[in-house]
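Observation: inputs received (chain + pyridoxal-5'-phosphate).
Thought: call the complex predictor directly.
Action: predict_structure
Action Input:
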Amino acid sequence: MMERLDKARSSHPQPLRLAGRVDAFTAGGSTAWEVHYAATEMRARGRDVIILTIGDPDFDTPEPIVDAAMASLHRGETHYTPAAGIPQLGKVIAEAETKRLGRPIENSQIVVTQGAQNGLYGIMQCLANPGDEVISIDPAYPTFSGVIGGAGADMVRAALAFDGEQFHLDMTSVKQARSERTRVVLLNFPHNPTGAMLNENEAREIAGFCRDHGIWLVCDEVYAELCFDRPYASPASFAEHAAHTISVRSFSKSHAMSGWRVGWVVAPDHVAFNLQNLMNCMLFGGAEFIQRGAVAALGLDAATQMRDAYHRRRDLLFDALSNQKGVRPLSPQSGVFMLADVRGTGLSSTDFAWRLLKEHNVAVMPADSFSPLTEGFVRLSLCVPDDELAEAGARIGRLAAAVSG
Ligand SMILES: Cc1ncc(COP(=O)(O)O)c(C=O)c1O
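Observation:
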């Protein structure tokens, strides 16, 4: 990546000026992936590395989804499609969202996107002006700074509260982050990297806060189906808050479809209409065979199987790391990641991650890359088979014990 940047700079005698917003796309998270890149290189050279850096499901996409996409290709469905998505997909998504949110959702409120990432970027373009402020909870998913900066808006962080076991939404910090310039609150629950959830009171309170202050509420809900201990309460479920609340969804994790790049946005009609116009300018419609696969996905109960598998792995890794010297796992309530507190080893997140890779062939994400709040933590992905996860837990324990003395 850096090589490409240097080459691009040196290939022009007098580089022309780029738009200022490009800086927003490189900020945040660019060093976060160094351990991951080193690990993938080591693996390519034949080293037996266990990679727990990335939340990319290790499961194959369920066969009926693949079959539906293949059948679509064989039918010759290789043409342009409507910018908001094919009507059949809009229909099944609207039905699924009506059920999930407990309020009627129409086709006209759905825009199919190329993954949640595309939906987040597009929706921010539609809601925020240059100079506006967007409150994002902290720790924040690393691309949020680019999503917000790409709209020319400023990101203001509102820290989650940590009770020693779990992270929670902290309305006091959200209220302190608000100013006259606040245009959007961008939430991510179930939360990456902490696995934190919203309960119904919290969901109602944040939605009410946004309504009272004329602020859009955007909920990144890519992990909504992967909740282990109790159901997730979505702020988008309240009819009285529907006019200012938007939900961004994805097939990536719930159906092991990360590489298909398909998700959707649920928004009030006029927002969906404008997002669809933006998608028209950016993509001119998504691939039909992908969307046919997505229609089949919503007819399956795949999310339950995925959730059960991640739940089992969460317990397995938690048990493997519990009672190990120098390391303390936090049990996530949802999602595909676990945070482990390694402050007991005396090492920083980054030093722990590099030593673990070099000495024990396990790659983890230093969690200080998300926020100073998670300095001293590492993030472990549950997206590897159970036996690899157990082995990784044992190796993490060995390093932690050795360093803690
Ligand atoms: C919080 C969060 N938002 C968005 C995304 C992007 O999801 P998608 O693959 O649907 O673009 C991810 C992926 O890991 C994520 O963790």
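Thought: report the result.
Final Answer: The chain has two domains: 20-60+303-404, 77-298. The radius of gyration is 21 Å.
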